[in-house]
Amino acid sequence: MLHVRSIWNGAISFGLVSIPIKLVNATENHSISFRQIHTEDGGRIRYRKFCELEDREVTGQEIGKGYEDADGTIIPITDDDLSSLPIPTARTIEIVAFVPEDRIDPLQMDAAYYLAAGGAPAAKPYTLLREALKRSNKVAIAKFALRGKERLGMLRVVGDAIAMHGLLWPDEVRAPEGVAPDTDVTVRDQELDLADALMDTLGEVDLEDLHDEYREAVEEVIAAKASGEAPPESAPPEREGKVLDLMAALENSVRAARESRGEEAEVKPLPQRKTSRSSPKATGGKKSTSTAKKKTAAPARKSTSKTPQQEKKPTAKKSPAKKGAAKKATPRKRSA
């Protein structure tokens, strides 16, 4: 840490305990940067700063800060104006709370720093804070000022050192509105099983084994052109046909992952898992209704058995008029 230049000197305020520290960048950028050049002769392209009113180039000593109002008016703001602001964290990392690490949303994570003890007197309180964080399994939430603005930070233990992650303020993190699909999607159990199989096949990875292949390829191109050689050509990536079937895409992915690990490439049918899902899982839309509820009831059959009322119904008597008609039809005998 001695050869790394500190970017900020101050102290950690831990209650009434003050710990002198130096703020050191914990990360470094290995990206290859390019300069803009004139393609005809290779000359550097540089930007010059001109004053709009005087139409002339100005130096850095002549440049200040200004706030542009809604109507376009520029309000000059000097360093003296900002230095008089009541910021108690101007040279202090003020710890305000201790919380479990899972309370911090990763979306809030910003730049990372190491906090180096500022001399021998800081060794004891620095070690005390580090061991207290270890034993509590918590992180410290702090406020500090850097580059003209107050920031939020999270202190945690990394090895034998204390690291601080800059945090965005909660109102600086956007809500994920309009990001997720707004259509009704049904995910089947078989698709989830294949996704689980793909995750199991890919397994874990040691992050130390990962490297920037693109940067290495760019370095090869630069080295070749610097020595007057032709840049190396790489084979274009193989592009398969567009797979419209999600199941086929998952099976091909599992097969390719297993082949890369030297395992059996055959994708065998997965056993049916016992899950609480008895129907396909619908995500983000209206619930599907079962077609069983839409069946219409069968018409009732006519019963041939007699009802009690029909059994007790008396037999109809012959009409008297019919009896009289029968008597008239019989001829009478004549007397001698």
UniProtKB/TrEMBL annotation:
Chain segments annotated as transmembrane: none
Keyword tags: DNA damage, DNA recombination, DNA repair, DNA-binding
Limits of the Ku domain: 55-184
InterPro entries according to UniProt: DNA_bd_Ku70/Ku80, Prok_Ku, SPOC-like_C_dom_sf
Region described as Disordered: 254-336
CDD domains assigned: KU_like (cd00789)
Biased composition (Basic and acidic residues): 256-267
Domain of life the protein comes from: Bacteria
Family matches, as SMART domains: Ku78
Compositional bias annotation for Basic residues: 315-336
Start-end of Low complexity biased regions: 278-307
Purpose: With LigD forms a non-homologous end joining (NHEJ) DNA repair enzyme, which repairs dsDNA breaks with reduced fidelity. Binds linear dsDNA with 5'- and 3'- overhangs but not closed circular dsDNA nor ssDNA. Recruits and stimulates the ligase activity of LigD.
Similarity remark: Belongs to the prokaryotic Ku family.
Quaternary structure, from the entry: Homodimer. Interacts with LigD.
UniProt protein name: Non-homologous end joining protein Ku
Organism: Streptomyces edwardsiae
